[in-house]
């Protein structure tokens, strides 16, 4: 059972990959990034994410939750998400995609050997 006020994430990504194909899915991820990013900075910032939370149905998130979301994906410590960090975060939030990515990586290693 989720804690009161917790955000429940339902993993729709595998179905999207199946429907759109890998290339189509990556295009949709890029579109999602552009939708959330600050147009001048080319990154998802606290302000741009906060401003666009309604598009995600998350308009009731607190500032602390928004900051936590950014920190989760901020790999280089600059306080914002570039496109690669955003896509990486989306994959990390999808257990099924992480598993299939791991399988593809293992297959690539086996093929190289």
UniProtKB/TrEMBL annotation:
Keyword Transmembrane helix (UniProt): no
Domain EF-hand: 61-96
Keyword line: Calcium
GO MF term set: calcium ion binding
Signal peptide: none
Record InterPro entries: EF-hand-dom_pair, EF_Hand_1_Ca_BS, EF_hand_dom, KIC/PBP1/KRP1
PANTHER family: CALCIUM-BINDING EF-HAND PROTEIN, CALCIUM-BINDING PROTEIN KIC
Name recorded for this polypeptide: EF-hand domain-containing protein
Provenance organism: Corchorus olitorius
């Amino acid at each position: 059972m989720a804690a009161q006020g917790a955000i429940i994430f339902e993993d729709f990504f595998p179905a999207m990959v199946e429907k759109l194909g890998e290339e189509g899915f990556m295009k949709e991820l890029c579109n999602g990034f552009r939708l959330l990013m600050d147009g001048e900075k080319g990154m998802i910032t606290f302000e741009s994410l906060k401003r666009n939370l309604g598009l995600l149905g998350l308009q009731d998130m607190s500032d602390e939750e928004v900051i936590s979301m950014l920190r989760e994906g901020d790999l280089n410590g600059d306080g914002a998400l570039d496109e690669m960090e955003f896509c990486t975060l989306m994959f990390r939030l999808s257990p099924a995609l992480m598993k299939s990515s791991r399988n593809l990586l293992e297959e690539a290693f086996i093929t190289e050997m």
